[in-house]
Specification:
single chain; Heme Oxygenase, Chain A; 0% strand
């Protein structure tokens, strides 16, 4: 099942992922403050939150799961360092709804599925960071976020591979799929709430 797991999740959450991939994504993340430092700080705060979650997971897991989560944590910590290097300051982790949700998961199957869901959300979000810096004519920072996006995609694929190790039968794969879609739903609900709080229609794609 791992060969088509990602595609199945993307199909099941297609509408939400399409909307999360709109240019309004950064508006929601920055409270409509679209300047370079605010955008960078939003990215760094999210990377820090992800690193915190994966570090906690690695400590509480064992075997393949512990190794995978530890690798994900190192990746996110590296992303945090690379983003904060752009403005020379530390940023507190900002978990947001997604990382708060991830902290509640304890089962390795659901955790691995949730990493896939988070990765699909992050893919759309990081694409908007790339677009922002392209529009700013800042190819250096656009390239930075292209690299972060590619590396996050690698970890999403690694999470699918982890499911091949920890999932035992169709029921586990279904639980993992439900966990992945739930992460997308959590991200989407937060996105809608943020935009509606600013009087913006979240349900159109632009």
């Amino acid at each position: 099942m791992d060969d088509d797991f990602r595609a199945t999740v993307e199909a099941d959450a297609a509408t939400e992922l399409d909307r999360l991939g709109s240019s309004k994504r950064l508006v929601a993340l920055t409270d409509a403050t679209l300047d370079d430092e605010t955008v960078l700080r939003a990215a760094a705060a999210s990377e820090a939150a992800a690193a915190d979650v994966f570090e906690a997971w690695a400590e509480s897991a064992s075997g393949d799961a512990a190794e995978a989560f530890g690798t994900f944590a190192k990746r996110e910590r590296d992303h945090y360092d690379r983003v904060t290097a752009e403005f020379g300051d530390d940023v507190d982790a900002d978990p947001g709804a997604v990382h708060d949700h991830l902290r509640e998961l304890e089962d390795p199957v659901e955790r691995a599925g949730a990493v896939v869901g988070r990765g699909l959300v992050a893919d759309r979000t990081l694409a908007q960071f790339v677009s922002y810096f392209v529009n700013q004519a800042d190819e250096g920072r656009a390239d930075l976020f292209r690299a972060l996006r590619a590396e996050t995609d690698e970890d999403t694929e690694a999470a699918v591979g982890l499911l091949g190790d920890v999932a035992d039968g169709d029921d586990d794969w279904e639980r993992a799929s439900a966990a992945a879609v739930e992460v997308v739903d959590v991200a989407y609900e937060e996105y809608v709430d943020a935009l509606e709080g600013m009087g913006i229609n979240a349900k159109s794609i632009c």
